[in-house]
Each structure stands twice: as structure tokens, then as C-alpha cells.
Amino acid sequence: MNRLSRYLLLAGLGLAPATAMAQARIVPYEAPANLPVKQVQAVPAQMPMAPTSPSPAPAAPSAAPAIVMPEPAPCTSGCEPAEEEQKPADKFFLEKQLDKTAAGKLLSDRGWRIYGWTQSSYNASSASRSNLPVPFIDRANEFSMMQNWLHVEKTIDTSKKEYQIGGVIDAIIPGTDSRFTLARGLFDEQNRNGDLYGFDLFQAYADVFLPNFGANGTTMRVGKFATFLEYEVVQGISNPFLSRSYLFQYNPFTHTGINFLTQLNDDWSMQNGVVLGSDNFIDPAARASYLGQLKWAPKDGKTSVAFGTTVTRPTYRRGEEFNFYNVYNLQVTHKITDKLSYVFDGSFSHIEKAPVVGSANWFGAVNYLAYAHTDRFTSNFRVELFNDTQGYRTGAEALYTAVTYGWTWKATDWFYLMPEVRYDYASKNGPFEGDRDLFTAAIGAILRW
């Protein structure tokens, strides 16, 4: 397909019917050499590639977004513990079937929920084979089963001033998104093997509410959990787009360790924790790192501001071939009207003693607008600038500009349709199969079960 033909296809795909996915061509998968798993350092193509080993790292839902989302998933960042899961309005197929059994009814009576979803997509692209370094929709002109997601949870209610125990298990079982979300030391051999459809235990943690720790109590979280650094999330039902921002992809996904969330008063909350790094499970590469956030979110206000960070000795650990880097993140949400919301997400990250390049930093800013036309139809607009100053994260030293428009139509409570069109431009080096620009048009669907 020549470039003109692709552009004509891209222009129409955003309005194409969902049957495009069923008609998509599925071809044998060959793992890209520079698959941007979070912890696998990427270096400019003209430089020798240093030894790599998979390991990623954000976010079950980060600070519960003010932007209108397809469907809230479990919040793991700046929200109050009592609000961590805005439950779906209805029970779906799996939960209904479980409720018919004695074991399922017992779990339900004790506050446990089990449900999931399947997200699939097809994208047409000006690239011939790979959209990298654009993540999650990286397989150009192909169909992807992005995630079969299983969610198990028991929430806690901080309005009850009593000791409580809850927790979450999230897993991709399987899906192509697992290639990006895997953490070091937990099933990461799948990426070394070039598996296309992998399994990932994305989250597995316990929450303990300590009512007497602080004026309003504190929630202690222990285990593997999504980061609150960056605004976007991995969960398909909670992210407004099929693709993800560079800022989200090239910063942490998950942390393993212990974290404390304290609601200081009606407006302020803080989080403090010690983790094993970013996108690192229990592995010899572990290094103690601080994780924290301070958030201002008035209950009756239209604006929230959160500053979060993870800080450690930010050096590449050569013996384990693993990246340890610092991140400083600012998120601002504002409800402009009852229908229109705005989000700003900005980060600066840096590392020392990196292979080939030495010192490296990457930073960027993402702006989001969401307009809720109806309760079931939302338009989403994203504009991003991302500067990979040494090319260490994306594989090409460049200032990336990306503009994305998409919408989410909840045809029913259990079926969503999500088309998007996206344009990417790199200031130099031609990271998109030798080109500086990339056009993609994708259509996706989510089936909740």
C-alpha cells in the first residue's frame, strides 16, 4: 500500500463500522527489536544497543481522572480509599454466573467482586509494519486482542471508622498489551521469548484501613500496585483512547512495596511509600525507592492539583541491566462546565550512567479535553509534546508532537465502541520506519463480561 492509499484509508477509518475488526488480517508476529517495554532502555539507532531485559511500570487508574472516562476502573492513586472503585452500575455475565453458586454468593456477601472485559482493536497506519515508538497500537495495519482483563476486588469504606481489609487482583489473561506492562521478575521471560499474547499479573495487593492512624485514618497498601504518576491508565475501560501518550509509556506502570494514603482533611491527602523501583517485582535488581504524592482536591471544587514523585539513586544498574530513574509529575484537573473537562499532565524524568549516552532525561506535557455529549457518548482530544533528549527511551533523539481525537460510545452497559485518529511528528531522526511523521486511525471495542 503506497502512502497516498494509506492516508485515504486513515481519513475514513475513524467512522468505519465495528465490522472492520472482524475482517482484519491476522499475520504471524515477529517481536520488534526495540519493543519499548518500560524498563528496557532504548538507545538511538545509530548507537550500539546495550543489553536489555524486560521490565515495565503506572498505573491502575491514577488519580481518579476528572475527565469523562469510558468506565471507571479501580482507582489506585490520588483518590480516597472509599472511592477507589466506582462500581459498575450492573453486574455482568461472570459475576451473575458466580452468584448462582454457593462459593460465588459467599464471596459476594463478604464484599468481593469478580468481573472483566475484552478489548480488541484494528489500526490502519502510514507505517507498513510497526507504529513504534507509539505504544499499545504498535502493530500497524493489524488486528490485536489488546487485553482480556480479569478484575477481583474487595473495597474498603473509609467513612466507617473501623479496621478493614480489602485488596485487588488485576490480570491480563492474555493480551498484546502485556508486552508493555510486564514488570521485571514476574513473567518477563515472555518478552524475551517474543510472545505476542502474554499473561501479566498487573496488580496484586492488600489494603488495610487504620482508622486511628491520622485524624481521618490511613490506608496501608502492600503488594504490587499501579502507580499514581501520570494520568493515563492501562485498564481499557478507564482510558479515553486506544493508544497511550509517550509520557505514560516511558514512565512507571507499577511499583512493588508498601504505600500509605492519608486523608489529611476534606481538601488535602498525601501518600508515602517505599518500593523496589519502577516496574520491578521481587528481583535481584531491586533498589529501595521513595514514592509519594501530595494532592489538593476540594470535595465541592471543580479543580484538583497533585504533585507526585518517585526518587532513588537514579543510575543504570549494569550487573542487572536495569534502569532506576527519578520522576517528578504534576497533574491538574478542572471541570470547565458540566460537560467539558480539562486535564494537564506533565513529568520530568532522569537517569545517570546510562549505556552509551551517560546522563539522560526525558520530559513532556499532555493536555486533555473531554466533552460528554450524552451519558453514553464522549469526545476526547489529546495534545502532547514529549522530548526524549538523548533518545534513551524511544530509540530516537527527538521532540515528539502527537495529536489524537477519539470518542467513546457506550452502546450498552456491556459494549463500548472506541475509534480514534492520531498524528505523530518527530523533530528529527525519522523514528517511524525512517519517516518523521506517522498517521494512524484505529477502531476498538470493549466487551464487558
3D architecture notes:
- The chain is mostly beta strands and 449 residues long.
- The protein has a single domain (3-29, 53-448), classed as Porin.
- Helices cover 9% and strands 43% of the residues.
- It contains seven helices and 18 strands.
- It has helices spanning 3-13, 19-22, 93-98, 102-109, 178-181, 189-192, 246-249; strands at residues 112-125, 142-154, 164-175, 198-210, 218-226, 254-263, 268-275, 289-296, 303-311, 316-317, 322-323, 326-335, 340-354, 358-372, 377-388, 398-412, 415-426, 437-448.
- The strands form two sheets. Strands 1-2-3-4-5-6-7-8-9-12-13-14-15-16-17-18 form a 16-stranded antiparallel beta barrel. It has a two-stranded antiparallel ribbon with strand order 10-11.
- β16 and β17 form a beta hairpin.
- The longest helix is centred in the N-terminal third of the chain and has 11 residues, at 3-13.
- The protein is globular and about 60 Å long.
- The protein starts with a helix and ends with a strand.
- The relative contact order is 0.18.
- The model is unreliable at 4-34 and 39-85 (pLDDT under 50).
Provide the descriptors you would attach to this structure in a database record:
449 residues, mainly beta, Porin, 9% helix
